[in-house]
Amino acid sequence: MMQDKDETKMDRTKIYFKDEIRRSFILYALGPAVGFAFVVIITCAFLWNWRLYTQSVEENRKVSILLEEEISSYKKFCEENPFGDNIVLKDNPAYVYSLLKNFTLNQKIEADFVVLDENSSVVLQGNSQRVFYIPEWQNSSPWGALGRIKSNPEKTIVEVSADYNGLAKPEIVVGHAFFSRDKKPFCLIFFLSPEKIKDILQPSLRFAISNGFGRFLYASDSRYKNQLNEIKSEYRNEKNYFHVEESAVYHARTLDNCFEIYTFSDVSFIKTTFLLLLLSIFIFLSLVVSGLFISAGKIAEEKTVTIDKIVAACESVSKGTFKGRLSVESNIEFQTIANAFNNMLDDVHNLIEENRREVREKYTAELKQLEMQFNPHFMFNTLETIKFLIKLDPERAQKTIVCLSELLRYSIDSGISVMPISEDLHYIENYLYILQLRFGERFTYSIDVPDSVKNCQIPKLILQSLIGNSVKHGFEGIDKMHVSITARSVSGRLVISVHDNGSGMDKETLKSVRSILKSEQNESGHTGLHNAQRRIKLMYGDSFGLKIESSKESGTKIKVTLPVIR
C-alpha cells in the first residue's frame, strides 16, 4: 500500500521535457508581454496621477497666491495707516471715502468696506446697498471679528465670518482699529466675498476655501460640506494629496494657517478610460496567451520527437527488452546519444547473459549440494541397527540393507531433481521403515495422498528432511510419536503437510526457527528445514516454501507450498 502511494506521488511529480519546453517557451514569450503590459499600466497610472497632482497643485497655488496677495494688500493698507493722526472723520468723510474707494478699485478683488465710530455706528460705507448688520450679542461680547478688532487696536484682524451681512453668508473680514486726532476710536473693515474671488480666478477645477477650523468660506459644490457648513470629515486628511470617491483632492494652508484651500479633480472619466485601457490590455494578453499555447505545443512536439524515441527505448529497456535499437536522423548530439545507447544495450545484454549463466551454474551447484546432503547420524544409527539384526533377524537385516541402499542411490542420483509424489513416497516409505525399525512401537506414521495429486512433481527427498526434523526434535520428553503426511491441491497450489504430535516448540524457539527459514545462511541445528527451504526457493522462487506452526507439548506442523507441476 505504501509503495502504491509512493508511485502515485511520483507520477504526480513527473516533469516531462516536452512540457518543460512548452512552459519555457510560454514563459519567455509571455513574460516580456506581461512585463510590457505591466509597465504600460504602471506608467499610465503614474502619468494620470501625476497629471492630476500637478493640475491640482497648480490650481490650488493660483487660488492661494491670489488670496494671499489680496489679503496681504488689504493688511498692508491698514497697517500703514493711510489716514494719518490728524484726521477727524466727521470733518473729512469725503476724503476718507475717496481714499478707500480708490484703493479697493485698484485691487484684483474689490472689497466692500465700512467705517465705524466708537459706538459701532456706520460712518462710511463703500456699497450703499449692502446692509451692515451687527448681531445683538456683539454689543455685549468681545467675541466675533468686530470684538477682536476693537480689543486689538493697531493690529489687523483677518477672519472668515458670516455675522455682519444679515444673510449668514461667509466672507473674509479684514479689519483694523484707528484713533482720530480727537483720540476717538474708529474701525475700518473690508469684506471680500468668495463670489468675487471665483470671478477673478475662473478656475478650471472645483475648489473650496475654509478657515483653519474647517468652516467654509466658499465651496463650488455643496457635496463637500456638511449641514454645519464645515468640510466633510472624509476630506480632512493629514496628507496634502489623496483620493476620495470620484475626486482627487489637494489641500494646502496659507496666510499662517488662516485658510485652507481645497482643489477637487474629477477622476470618473479618467477611471473609465483607465478601465478601458486595462480591458484592452487584457484582451490583447488573452490573444497572445492563446496563440502562445498553440504555437508552444506545436514547437514542443516538433522538437521532442527524437527525445520521445530515446525515452521509449529507455522504457523498453527498463521492462527488460534489450532487442530494440535507436535509429536517429537528427542533430549530431542526438545521433551520438543513440550510438552510445545502442553500444550500451549490447554490453548490457552480454553482461546479463553472462550473469544468467553464472547464476544458473551457481544455483545448479547449490541444488546438487543440497540434494546430496544426507543426515550422517541417520546413517550411523541405521548401520548399527543392521549390525544387530544380522545376528538376530537376518531377513529384516537384508530388507533394511535394501531399503537403505535404494534410499542412498536415490539421494546421490545427480540426474534427478524432481519426482512425482507417488515415486518419491516409495523412497520415503523406505526411510519410514528404517525409522520404525529403529524406534519400534514408539514411532508410527500415516500417509494420505489422493490420486489427484500423486502425479504432481516435487523436489526429491524434500519430505525426508521434514520427517527427519520431526523425529530429531519431537521425541524429546515423550514416549510415542505419530507423524502424518498429507498432500492436497489448494487454489492452484500443491500443499504438503508433515504433522507430528511431538514435544513441540515454545514461542521463542518457534520465532528462532522461522527466522532461520527466512535467512540465506544457517549456522543452527535445523539444517534439514533450512536446506528444504533453500531448495524450494532456488527452484520455484520466493512465493513458495515452508511454513511452520508449533506450540509446546502440542506437536509441530510443517506446510510445504509448491507449484502444481504435472
Describe the structure in your own words.
Helices cover 51% and strands 19% of the residues. The chain contains 14 helices and 17 strands. The strands form 4 sheets. The chain has a 5-stranded antiparallel beta sheet, sandwiched between helices. A 5-stranded antiparallel beta sheet has the order 7-6-10-9-8. Strands 12-14-15-17-16 form a 5-stranded mixed beta sheet. Helix 2 (17-79) runs antiparallel to helix 6, helix 8 packs antiparallel against helix 14 (527-540) and helix 9 (376-392) runs antiparallel to helix 10 (394-412). The longest helix has 63 residues, at 17-79.
Give the topology.
Elements: H1 2-12, H2 17-79, H3 93-105, E1 112-116, E2 122-125, H4 144-151, E3 157-161, E4 171-179, E5 185-192, H5 194-201, E6 206-211, E7 216-219, E8 241-244, E9 247-254, E10 259-266, H6 268-303, H7 305-318, H8 332-372, H9 376-392, H10 394-412, E11 418-420, H11 421-439, E12 443-448, E13 457-459, H12 462-474, E14 481-490, E15 493-500, H13 507-518, H14 527-540, E16 545-550, E17 556-563
Parallel strand pairs: 12-14
Antiparallel strand pairs: 1-2, 1-5, 3-4, 4-5, 6-7, 6-10, 8-9, 9-10, 11-13, 14-15, 15-17, 16-17
Helix pairs in contact: 2-6, 8-14, 9-10, 10-11, 12-14
